[in-house]
Amino acid sequence: MNLIKRVILLIVMSLIVILALYAYSYKQSVHVIENQINTRNEEKLSYFLNRIESLLDQNMIYATLVTKDPEIKKVAFGELPPASYDRVSVVQSIESKLNLFSMTNQIMNIITLYFPKIDLALSTVPSTGLNQEEILKDYTANWKLTKVDISGVKMDAFSRFFISPYQAEATNIMKSDFIIRVDFFTKNIANLLDEFKIAGNGDAFFYGSSNQIVYNSTANMTLIQQLMQKSPFQDGKGLKKSSTVVELSGKKYILYVLPSEKLNWSLVDIEPLEEILNPVNHSRNLFYLILFLLLLLGMVAAYFLYFYIQVPIRILIRSSEHIKNKNFSYRIQSLRKDEFKQLFDSFNDMAKEIDELIKRVYVEEIRSREAVMKQLQSQINPHFLYNCLAYIVNMAKMNKPQSVIAMAHNLGDYYKYTTRNETLETTLGTELELAVNYMNIMNQQLDKFRYIVSVPETMKAMKIPKLIIQPLIENAIVHGLEEISMNGLITIVGLDDSPRYRLIIEDNGPGLSAEALQELRRKTADEQNDSPQKGIWNVHHRFHYYFGERSSMRLDNSALGGLRIELIWEKAAGE
């Protein structure tokens, strides 16, 4: 992993840690805010529910006070004056008292007083009256939502009956002294709900059942209907004090439910959670934006680090690879004007000095190789000359002048070829002609072998050192074929196996044992050879000096029976 990737990874990991810490902090903050919202709203709900219950309790208190009035008690006991003037005076007095109770309450309600014994009904609203049939039909000892007819207009109100003295059974209410009905209009509760809504962000309503709901004057009916469809509101009794998060129209709301202990109704509030958390979410989004900008800034810093540091380092590394691959003429081309310019200039100066030094060393090495090759070549000439002179002597003794003449001519041509020291290399084709000439001469001496030469024309133009093939042929004849009486065979095969050349020389002599072959390989690889048999060693080292590390000589037993020598060298560039 390079430096830039590490820097980017470090930046990303740091931002991930920061993001994780912020996410935890944000979660805790939201949790704390939700708890505070829940606490505040529960207190607010309790306060407004207490106000609703207090209004209802005030009506009960006023109903109780009515029962204590002496004038009302007299009428209840049948002491209503029969005369019209006195009777009207008493009725008006009682109605004034009822109106006084209603006005003192400062709420919209109706107080109706019914005397069963004299079938008389008095009310704060003259158009509202009671009779036995209505009382028996609508009687309830608890508050109940009903429709009250006010001058032909039906209005919602909570109604309740009070009896004096109290009766255990509703069937005996007509035997009581008087009956009081209090109608408490839901408009009073709607006004309280309006105050509740103004004091917060919620949308509260008073819930009794699916068809008994008191809304505030600006209630979001669509939202409340969605809530009714999603939440299991069966009736007021089934609701319990709770605080839950619901999702309506893709937005989250906090649903508060606070049941009344005195009524079978519950005060319900819907708080928009997203609006409440909007400042926190705004801060969160701002943090994410800043975090993104920090990441972007880190990427830009990493880019500058890459461009101004890693790119020059990579240039130096690639340049060092050129020097390593012996391309000493390579120079760094750069228009930079920073600190790396001086470093690049120093590298170019160093490469220049190395190039000049290598050239001087290379020239000296070439001269040294030429001296070594001439020395090795000089070791071959006496050896070959000795064999040829011995042959001429033998042929002269055997009175074979033609063989002597042929050998003398071939020996003269050989020395004419080898003594041209203006160059130490020749072509493979020329070397093969010399080898064929040599095998013809030797076959005239031995008359017991044949030879096969198969080399592609493309290889014959290859440049090789002089006297590379002839010593190997000589070794095959002297150490291989001399031990057989007849039917000897020497093969010279050339192969153009891209990207290298192969030249294989084999004979069908007796070959070598595994130990002798291993010993021959060891002696051939040694830098020094003190044994009198230097032909293969000489060829190996001259071949290696000429082609360098790209060449090799392999020694092995041949499938023909004798020794197999394989010369291998790689093609030069452009071949």
Automatic annotation (TrEMBL):
Main localisation: membrane
Membrane spanning stretches: 7-26, 286-309
Protein localization: Cell membrane
UniProt KW keywords: ATP-binding, Cell membrane, Kinase, Membrane, Nucleotide-binding, Phosphoprotein, Transferase, Transmembrane, Transmembrane helix, Two-component regulatory system
Signal peptide interval: none
Domain HAMP positions: 307-359
Membrane topology term: Multi-pass membrane protein
Top-rank lineage group of the source organism: Bacteria
EC number: 2.7.13.3
InterPro entries (alphabetical): Bact_2-comp_sensor_kinase (IPR050640), HAMP_dom (IPR003660), HATPase_C_sf (IPR036890), Sig_transdc_His_kin_internal (IPR010559)
GO molecular function, one term: protein histidine kinase activity
Keyword Transit peptide: no
PANTHER family per the UniProt record, alphabetical: SENSOR HISTIDINE KINASE YPDA, SENSOR PROTEIN KINASE HPTS
Stated name of the protein: Two-component system sensor histidine kinase YesM
Lineage: Bacteria, Bacillati, Bacillota, Bacilli, Bacillales
